[in-house]
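> example.struct
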């Protein structure tokens, strides 16, 4: 079969590799209908992780069941399914408590497992024609409809970024009426803003520098903030002050809460210095969130931070060590939650919101490309919405387009 194979820094190719096969009684093989490229794939693409050449990328996967092992009971050949990026057993101590992002069984070398990702076990990725799914009864989410229908691009986002974005709002304790600042207008950031609005947030700000992505934020009812136009924390405070109706509803002492109650870092360790966007500043977003989130508020860090970063800005960053503004955060009593999303905690009800027209996350999808064009897609997507990548917000690879050609 054909698959997207990592060759080294800034290089992938589409190559022929052996087809997957049933290796355990509870395995399934799926034929991939859609596999999205994730912003976190770029960390590996840019050699900012432990991924080595030969890694088959792809953890946002959906398709059609081709074959099941003899122990599989709840799915069958021909079923349409989407897979959480977390590979999980369903029965270990953590899975039983809903923490499928920390499965103790699936990865012999760690406490998290996933498809085609550095440090997440022996599983090949699904930017390919076929994929082996372990613990298939637990990991396959059954879907209605047919391959390529009007919900295909919505459903593939259930593999990762829609549940991950929803989890970010849980980390940040977003509730109805809340004010929210989301840093990063990539796929997860946009869907975190969207999820906040679905939850009933009263004001949602989205910070980035990519015009097309900021326009998408505006299109769903969020307030775009361009960090190249000045300190975004101060911009958000100023915008809130200009909301005269809101201000007139406050008692004088309430005006001390000039920021937002909920902050989300959807950027991670490759954050850009807002004074010089050509340079990285890993703690840029965290510092600004500590300034813009009000006392007693919450911060959710869904952006990736690796324990090791070969391309880190200094010796400490390369070891996953960062200067954290703990004093200000502690003094304001801000709560912080972070880490990968347990996708299965959310994917069933998010699926049903899509089915019943309550959510349409595919508004972020900008390209639907054959698998053979993956190298071109990565070369554009890596620019993160500016320059050569200005039109690339979310790419979905569809192996069937190659077969049709």
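> example.seq
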């Amino acid at each position: 079969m054909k698959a997207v194979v990592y060759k080294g820094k800034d290089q992938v190719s589409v190559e022929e590799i052996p087809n997957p096969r049933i290796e355990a009684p509870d395995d399934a093989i799926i034929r991939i209908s859609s596999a999205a490229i994730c912003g976190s794939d770029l960390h590996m693409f840019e050699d900012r992780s432990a991924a080595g050449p030969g890694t088959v990328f792809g953890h946002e996967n959906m398709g059609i069941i081709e074959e099941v092992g003899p122990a599989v009971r709840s799915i069958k050949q021909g079923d349409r399914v989407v897979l959480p990026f977390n590979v999980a057993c369903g029965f270990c101590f953590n899975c039983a408590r809903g923490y499928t992002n920390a499965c103790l069984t699936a990865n012999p070398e760690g406490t998290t497992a996933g498809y085609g990702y550095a440090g997440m076990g022996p599983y090949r990725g699904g930017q390919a024609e076929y994929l082996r799914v372990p613990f298939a009864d637990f990991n396959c989410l059954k879907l209605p409809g047919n391959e390529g229908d009007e919900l295909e691009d919505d459903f593939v986002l259930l593999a990762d970024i829609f549940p991950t974005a929803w989890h970010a709002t849980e980390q940040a304790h977003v509730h109805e009426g809340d004010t929210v600042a989301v840093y990063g207008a990539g796929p997860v950031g946009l869907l975190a803003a969207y999820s906040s609005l679905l939850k009933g947030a009263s004001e949602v700000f989205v910070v980035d520098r990519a015009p097309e992505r900021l326009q998408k934020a505006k299109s769903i009812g969020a307030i775009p903030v361009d960090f190249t136009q000045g300190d975004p924390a101060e911009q958000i405070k100023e915008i809130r002050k200009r909301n005269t109706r809101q201000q007139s509803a406050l008692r004088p002492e309430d005006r001390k809460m000039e920021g937002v109650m909920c902050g989300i870092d959807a950027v991670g360790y490759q954050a850009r210095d807002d004074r010089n966007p050509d340079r990285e500043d890993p703690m840029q977003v965290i510092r600004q969130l500590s300034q813009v989130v009000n006392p007693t508020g919450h911060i959710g860090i869904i952006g990736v931070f690796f324990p090791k970063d070969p391309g880190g800005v200094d010796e400490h960053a390369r070891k996953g060590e960062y200067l954290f503004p703990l004093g200000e955060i502690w003094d304001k009593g801000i709560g912080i939650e972070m880490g990968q999303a347990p996708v299965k905690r959310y994917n069933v009800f998010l699926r049903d919101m899509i089915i019943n027209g309550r959510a349409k996350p595919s508004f972020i999808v900008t390209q639907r490309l054959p698998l053979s064009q993956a190298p071109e897609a990565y070369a554009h997507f890596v620019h993160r919405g500016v320059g050569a990548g200005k039109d690339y917000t979310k790419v979905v690879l569809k192996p069937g387009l190659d077969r049709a050609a």
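> remarks
The chain has two domains: 2-160+342-404, 164-338.
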